[in-house]
Amino acid sequence: MAKSSGPAARAAYHCTECGWRSVQWVGRCGECQTWGSVDQASPALLHAVTAGPVTTAARPIGEIDIESARARPTGVDELDRVLGGGLVPGAVVLLAGEPGVGKSTLLLEVAARSAGAGGRTLYVTGEESAGQVRLRAGRIGALDPRLYLAAENDLAAVLGQVEAVDPQLLVVDSVQTLSAPEVDGAAGGVTQVRAVTSALIRVAKQRGLATVLVGHVTKDGAIAGPRALEHLVDVVLHFEGERHSRLRTVRAVKNRYGPADEVGCFDLHDQGLTGLADPSGLFLSRRPEPVSGTCVTVSLEGRRPLLVEVQALVGATAAGSPRRATSGLDSSRVAMVLAVLDRRGGLRLADRDVYAATVGGVRVADPGADLALALAVASAAADLPVPADVVAVGELGLAGEVRHVTGVRHRLAEAARLGFTRAVVPPGCAADVDGLRATEVPDLAAALAALAGRPRR
Fold first, then answer.
1. Could you report the per-residue pLDDT of 230-287, keeping only the tens digit for each?
2. Between vectors from CA 127 to CA 94 and to CA 236, what angle results, nearest 5°?
């Protein structure tokens, strides 16, 4: 038999994370840059593929039934907002988050709501005993006779439970705790996670079973397991929140059935999670008089405008090099804003410590908060408070210019609804909003001058 030729035949090693192939072993994947993920691949011979029987005959697109693909509400409004209306039958959702953030609590409530709507729900726990989950369900009021609970770590046993219960919703907590005996490797390993997930996806598609998988995260916040795991599932959600804050957010980073930029907000308390339809008040401080070093901005999280207060503190450094500390803000973006303030705004910060944070534990990645951060730092350095009825929205460029951001009218309408009467915005963004007067500023110097109440030179 003649040997196969070409790069595909010579590739004797492959990356277990992304599938990249190499003719020789290397310590680091050349595609995803993961260390220690390159392993020896079993040789495969290419054969001619012939036509075979089809599973379902092709039909004109207009004759395809779409009712079976419509989303069904979970009963948790904030989660439905992120999912695009609810869970689609046969869809597989991966929910990832740090330990203790509240993933199990959220999904237990979703399972109870789904069971209460009339459909059987199967909750499989691989990390806790059934008694521990039952205690939590009683504490948060997630009890329903149609909610079935099973503690399993074997994939075959889980599939047997699905056959016995015949649920409309399956929750697996977590996918890293399941293992298939016929697959090499320990539970939670790359090979096991890929095999278990593929089997659960196959069952979900065959039965039209909506499935939610809980995924662990690594210390840098990425989803544990192979990168291909995120490509296999239909929806990827990140459950986030500071350990010492009650606020929890669900972000969609992939969604085949709805928007991938929505955010849901929850309040974590002893009785479980409560959706926050209007969370803006959590991110603002209430004080009788304005305080220097604070400025309010309107961050756009997906399609939802959130009013967030940015705080800054500037003080003399006690060491040789000044300290920069951030909380809730991107440290590299804060460093860029400080550099622009120093070079374009005439604010000397080279020998001063700067601390910047957001109120309420919210994390802001929107570049539209740059202007508010700059004004908060300038206010702290000069010890002059920003008026309490002012919001600032705009992205700051390296040349000191204030750039346009998306959804300005939507942001300003939310600010006016919460009682703000003045706004500092980029040029051409002075939207006509009742009860709010917008001041356009082309650059940082103009913004500082407008805030100080003096004309620009």
1. 888 999 999 988 777 788 889 899 999 888 878 888 988 888 889 988 887 778 887 7
2. 5
Kindly report the length of the chain: 457
Helix (H, G, I), strand (E, B) or coil at 260: coil
Backbone dihedral region for residue 415 (phi beyond 0: left; psi -120 to 50: alpha; all else: beta): alpha
Contact present, 357 and 311 (Cβ < 8 Å) = yes
One of 3.40.50.620, 3.40.50.300, 3.30.230.10, 3.40.50.1000 is the CATH number of 282-452, namely 3.30.230.10
pTM: 0.78
Q: Cα–Cα distance between 282 and 332 in angstroms, integer?
A: 25
Residues 180, 85: Cα–Cα separation, whole Å: 34
**CATH 3.40.50.1110 is right for the domain spanning 71-277:** no
Helix (H, G, I), strand (E, B) or coil at 344: helix
Return the closest-CA partner of residue 214 out of 188, 190, 191: 188
Task: Specify which residues 251 forms β-bridges with.
Answer: 238, 263
CB neighbours of 37 closer than 8 A, spacing ≥ 6? 15, 16, 17, 29, 190
- For 268, the 3-state DSSP assignment is strand
What are the structure tokens assigned to 405, written together? 């951001």
Task: State the Cα–Cα distance between residues 231 and 25, nearest whole angstrom.
Answer: 25
- Count the neighbouring beta carbons within 10 Å of the beta carbon of residue 61: 6
Contacts of 312 (CB under 8 A, 6+ apart): 293, 294, 354, 355, 356, 357, 373, 376, 377, 379, 380
200: Cβ contacts below 8 Å, ≥ 6 apart: 92, 155, 158, 170, 172, 175, 211, 213
Of 46, 40, 36, 35, give the one whose Cα is nearest residue 21. Answer: 40
**CA dist., res. 403 & res. 387, Å (int):** 23
Token pair belonging to 327: 């909380």
Question: Residue 274 in contact with residue 267, Cβ under 8 Å?
Answer: yes
pLDDT digits (tens, 9 = 90+) for 186-232: 888 888 888 999 999 999 999 999 999 998 887 767 777 667 788 88
- Which value, to the nearest 10 degrees, does the dihedral of the CA atoms of residues 242, 247, 253, 255 take? 150
Query: Where do the structural domains in the chain lie, given as residue ranges?
Result: 10-40, 71-277, 282-452
Report the distance separating Cα 148 and Cα 39, nearest Å. Answer: 40
Tokens 């997630």 identify what position? Answer: 142
Give the whole-angstrom CA distance, residue 31 versus residue 33: 6
